[in-house]
């Protein structure tokens, strides 16, 4: 797979763990990273789709494993890390990509909604990174990429807990970069705009809107369209590779200009 078309081997020899890797941006990133020469561990709670991604990579000559894991549970994370270390070796890159969204105002949210979104979007990064960082430090360093959002930098309507969680990811990323730079561990986050995934269509359902109207509204940005998962994956590739060797503590906005007039 490292010799596939459009591959330059940017991640040759690297071991990478991607959470939420069964679909959307996670899937696109797993396929791209494998094509660039990485051995990829895909973690997700959606077992059939996650297995399919791993099988697609292996079928194209790459190296991949799938682990059914809930990254909000420390025991699942430990089991997953033990397996990837045993089968692939030390982890060089962690992509904390798993996330969920609940479109609602504060008055519409239940306490359970709040806790679930904050746990999946923020606490999972804490749980997994706390286990990965000592391994990376022992191996001489690495790169951690956290999935934030444009709505971690600017607010949005009926998205109170999502905005709160992604804003937390942005500042957690900066704090981690400060703490672990001396261990040669770079920590950055990606802030995508609306991207053509099942999650985006699920937002339309939550808001009671048609997918067509919702996507048309989402495309109202300078580039005139929503993003593709593969485009966000390219941003992750930059942060995972040595091309970004002096980049840490950064919130990389990839949104077709959606926030250009806001921040």
Report on this model:
This protein starts with 14 loop residues before the first strand and ends in a 9-residue tail after the last strand. Helix 4 links the parallel strand 4 and strand 5. The chain contains eight helices and seven strands; from the N terminus they run βαβαβαβαβαβαααβ. A seven-stranded parallel sheet has the order 3-2-1-4-5-6-7, sandwiched between helices. With 263 residues, it is α/β, with parallel strands linked by helices. It has a single domain, classed as NAD(P)-binding Rossmann-like Domain (Rossmann fold), CATH 3.40.50. The longest helix is centred in the middle third of the chain and has 29 residues. The model has no long low-confidence stretch (mean pLDDT 95). Helix 4 runs parallel beside helix 5.
